[in-house]
Amino acid sequence: MSEPPQIVSDSETRGLVARLPTRLRDLVQLARFDRPIGWWLLFWPGAWAVALAGQAVRRWDMILWLLIGSIAMRGAGCVYNDIVDRDLDRKVARTALRPLASGRMSVKAAWAWLLVLCLVGLVVLLQLNRIAAITALASLGIVAAYPFMKRITWWPQAWLGMVFSWAALVAWPAVTGGFAAATWLLYGGAIFWVIGYDTIYALQDIEDDALAGVKSSARALGDRARGGVAICYLLAVALWGAAFWQVRPQPLGLAALLPVALHLGWQVATLDRADPADALAKFRSNRFAGLLMALACFVVGTTA
Questions:
Q1: What sign has the CA pseudo-torsion 205, 209, 215, 219?
Q2: How many beta carbons lie within 10 A of that of residue 87, not counting itself?
Q3: Is residue 8 in some structural domain?
Q4: Angle, nearest 10°, between helix axes 181-202 and 286-303?
Q5: pTM above 0.85?
Q6: Where are the alpha helices (DSSP H) in the chain?
């Protein structure tokens, strides 16, 4: 078994990114293009919705647009987050050398980069029908509020769950023309999935967050973090099962969830709360969990 990845500051550059000119490298890092796990996690709920609605084959183009939108808007979200959090980022070892926190890039340049990324998002928005487009625009409020949640609530992960699961609410009407009970159940399950994996992610920074006064579910749960993540994952699987039942009310449909349920169970069973490297490895493994869920949605959606 390979060793878990090393914890590195967000400023470390490797491979192609390290060879880029300084200004271009800062833009890439500011949007986290060098760390694709974020846009994968933003993308998966949208792909799930298309697949569970039975449209994965016919509307493969929508899945592609959702992927492009996820990359652009995750990048925009990271830029906005760094603009808002640049003072807090200076107090946390992992983020102190980010382009804005370190002073390498001006706030004005960051706002300009944010505008460029939003224009890419606008192109994707124009591919959606009216209901889906309105739903996508409705997310802007909660997206804008997210960076402030860690200052006012111990559960910013719950707010992130609403943000990072929103693609499910956009994708379903984009391919069906409206909403269904399964849409909301899928979305609710995704929220608990996000709370679970982002609590794991927050374990990396728990000491620095305490010093900086940053609130998180990891700090709120403390020694009960493993149990809290387990409850979130159980609720996620339960809600996903209810969504599947809405589409295909047969036990065999629920069986499609077994691989992703086992994977999430493995995360909880082997999580080492005291090891930041293990927390990062478990967090990153949710890219694979998203794929397993996508396959389950495809099976149920195409056989309903």
A1: positive
A2: 10
A3: no
A4: 170
A5: yes
A6: 15-18, 22-30, 37-52, 60-89, 107-125, 130-138, 140-152, 156-164, 167-176, 181-202, 206-212, 217-221, 225-247, 251-255, 258-270, 276-284, 286-303
pLDDT of residue 20: 83
Locate 277 and state its tokens.
């490297």
Does residue 105 have a pLDDT over 70?
yes
- Considering only residues 238 and 154, tell me which one the structure prediction assigns the higher pLDDT: 238
Q: Tell me whether residue 280 is in a domain.
A: yes
Confidence of residue 3 (pLDDT cuts 50, 70, 90): very low
What whole-number distance in Å separates Cα of residue 139 and Cα of residue 163? Answer: 7
Task: Convert the pLDDT of each residue in 65-79 to its tens digit.
Answer: 999 999 999 999 999
- Is pLDDT above 70 for 1? no
279 domain-assigned = yes
Q: What's the number of domains the chain is made of?
A: 1
Phi (first) and psi of residue 190, to 5 degrees: -65, -35
Q: Which domain holds residue 291?
A: 17-303
What pLDDT sits at residue 193?
Answer: 98
- Greater confidence (10 vs 140) lies with 140
pLDDT in tens, 116-130: 999 999 999 999 999
Closest CA to 242 of 194, 192, 207: 192
Task: List the CATH number of the domain containing 150.
Answer: 1.10.357.140
How many Å apart are CA 302 and CA 293, to the nearest integer? 14
Q: What span, in angstroms and rounded, lies between the C-alpha atoms of 233 and 286?
A: 12
The tokens of 69 are what?
Answer: 């939108």
Instruction: Let me know if residue 7 belongs to a domain.
Output: no
CA distance 234 to 268: 11
